Amino acid sequence: MKRTLSALALLATLALSSASRAEPGWALVWADEFDGPSIDKRKWGFDADCWGGGNDERQCYTKSGRNAAIEDGKLVITARYERTTGAALPLQLRRQSSQGDREATRDFSSARLTTRGRASWQYGRIEVRARLPQGQGTWPAIWMLPEKTRYGPWAASGEIDILEAVNLGVICTKCPGGRENTIFGTIHFGAKPPGNTQAGTEIGFLEVLDGFHTYAVEWFADRIIWQVDGRSYAERKAGEWFTAGSKTPGAPFDQPFHLILNLAIGGKLPEGRGLGGVRNDGYPKRMEVDWVRVWQKPVIGARAPAGSVKTGGN
């Protein structure tokens, strides 16, 4: 997940539009305000493993209430510095492997929640209001994967990263304010490794270090727009992405995707930036989510259940 912060990307900080790019006609089709006593299992499942996400991350994801719970009307994902043992492979790989029962032990525990199998969407406005943790090695993410691998294994079937941030708050002489405050918006596509590729934008957003902010994508058949607090900072058009060997227009971002919320610790991206590696101080680390909302533009005459609506309004 190599990214380069160019001068143009830095200038994008100043180019944030003050007006929202949201257009009229959106209808709310799915939401979680986290106002119940516990995580709604009708909406969210857990990925529980110590695989490391294919990025050499250092956490085990668990289903424990110590790592994900509802507190004061918010979802709180908590990463802890504690030796944790669990499955060495994610569920899908366990089913395919003769060593599916193998275990691994990591130095951190955390959580990864997903709507996979419960809700997925093709096109729409997906927005999440969250407060992100700080510290060298932290890697909070709000992102999407395809409900079905229609075009083949990652990244042939695509990935949409609504928001990623690493090492927030650590000393950064090149960052506005002198501390790391970069946010990322990225898509992954192409083919399975080593044929995978990506297109993304990273900007300095000093406000990320203080309080809650709303991170969103507006996803249409022909473009994807990234926003923070209603201000657009990046756009990718259909001509910029592809699936190797496919002649389907819009592939792979022409199919339903589900949502993922997680807090990783360590991995190639954060450990290769900032101060390097992972610092063990300041734990536990918390990623707090105030709400998640999904909006779509209904197609006139179309009928489909909320949560799986395939809309094309653009």
Q: Radius of gyration from the CA trace? A: 19 Å
The CATH topology is given as Jelly Rolls
- The chain-level mean pLDDT equals 90
Structural class: mainly beta
The CATH class is identified as Mainly Beta
H/E element sequence: HEEEEEHEEEEEEEEEEEHE
Residue share in helix: under 10%
- Give a short account of the largest sheet: 10 strands, mixed
Basic shape? globular
What does this structure look like?
There is one protein chain. 6% of the residues lie in helices and 38% in strands. The protein is globular. It has three helices and 17 strands. By secondary structure, the protein is mainly β.
List keywords for this structure.
mainly beta; Jelly Rolls; single chain; 3 helices; ten-stranded mixed beta sheet
Topology:
Layout: H1 7-14, E1 27-32, E2 45-46, E3 59-61, E4 68-71, E5 74-87, H2 91-96, E6 103-110, E7 112-114, E8 124-131, E9 138-146, E10 159-164, E11 182-189, E12 197-204, E13 213-219, E14 223-228, E15 231-237, E16 257-265, H3 268-271, E17 285-296
Parallel strand pairs: 3-6
Antiparallel strand pairs: 1-17, 2-7, 4-5, 5-6, 5-17, 7-16, 8-13, 8-17, 9-10, 9-16, 10-11, 11-12, 13-14, 14-15
